[in-house]
Amino acid sequence: MKYQRKLILYSFLFVAFPGAVLLLGVTVLTMESYTPKDRTMISILVFLAIMVAVCTYLISRFDRQAGLLEKAARRIAEGDLDYVLEVQGDDEFSSVARSFERMRISLKEEQSKRFRFLMAVSHDLKTPLTSIKGYVEALQDGFAEDPRDAQNYLRILKEKSDALEDRIKELIEFVKTETGDWRLRASRIYLDRFFSELVDVTTHDARILKRRFHYHLDIPGHAYVIADETLLVRVFENLLGNAIRYTQEGDAIHIDVRPRGKTVLVSVRDTGIGIAEEDLPHIYDPFYRGTHSRREAGHGLGLSTVKNIIRSHDWKIECFSKEGKGTEFLIHLAPFFLDNQQPEV
After folding, report:
1. Counting beta carbons within 10 angstroms of the beta carbon of residue 73, is it exposed (0 to 12), middle (13 to 18) or buried (19 or more)?
2. 213 and 326: one domain?
3. Fewer Cβ close by (within 10 Å): the C or N end of the chain?
4. Torsion angles phi and psi, residue 331, rounded to 5
5. CA–CA gap between residue 311 and residue 314 (Å, rounded)
């Protein structure tokens, strides 16, 4: 139907424009003298011809651009993320086309991240599996005739199997955080109670590990957010765990919680080794191990999981760090509510 309307419109414009010009020319040529009424009619015909020309140009240009956008959308829908939409001009349509192009680039980057994620998963699981297979074959081939050697092999197999199980569990948890399943377990999390308990636990950990721990809690009474408490605990356990891991005895760890408008800002800051500048853009990438983290235990999923949890709750996280000076993570918990408010869960 839209093509029939387009055909009718184009037919009218392509007939009206030449017709108006022809009528104008005939009128001018056949007139021997011009009265005020004649001049008015000629002016109207000139205006009509100009308007038809402008409308014809604008409609044909819009139709051409819409066709390019439709073609690009069809190619991307078919999976061709390498198709580039050429953008020219600086009008409203060009702005839409540039936004579409940014979307294509974002989708391509996301596809690349997922590919790297699958490759990293394969490598991360293959390593312990290869080791397990090697020890099993050694047992089958009789390399452990001494019972003590056999027991040692079995102990190593148990350790490797446990490590493999831990990695699989961590991967499953990571994938779950990318979904909205947490909404099924969402509840009111009262922030004063949550952060008071978090501070108590961290105070003990910092004392045992000889870190200086400081906190400031300025939370409105009865303020709460709608969230999965297990996932929220996971976020701050990871951030505070990293703060302890990448600091030394005598270094300081700070947690600051305060409201700003309808947002609760949570700052987790330390005076540790910091993050290298080249690592900062990749700290949330799955399996990425930064310059300093390569010497530490872990699989490189901690901050990726944190980012997924924050994103799934429609919150925001920022990271500020300088190598040798320390790191700060700033979490925006928004919105928060009070007891007299009834948010939809």
Report:
1. middle
2. yes
3. N
4. -110, 130
5. 5
- What pTM was computed for the model? 0.59
Q: Measured between alpha carbons, how far is 181 from 175 in angstroms, rounded to an integer?
A: 11
Q: Which helix (H) or strand (E) holds 285?
A: none
If asked whether residues 150 and 198 sit together in one domain, one would say: no
Domain match, 141 and 207 both:
no
The closest of 180, 166, 327, 179 to 242, measured between CA atoms, is: 327
Could you tell me if 75 and 212 lie in one domain? no
Q: Does residue 343 belong to any structural domain of this protein?
A: no
- pLDDT digits 0-9 by tens, 237-254: 999 999 999 999 999 999
- The whole domain housing 71 covers 2-83
* pLDDT, tens digit, 9 for 90 and up, residues 262-302: 899 999 999 999 998 888 988 888 767 665 554 455 456 78
Same domain (yes/no): 158, 203: no
Please, what is the Cα angle at 298 between 296 and 303, to 5 degrees?
A: 105
- 34-64 in b/e form (b: 16+ CB < 10 A) is eeeeeeebeeebeebbeebeeebeeeeeeee
- From the CB of residue 135, how many other CB atoms can be counted at a distance below 10 Å? 18
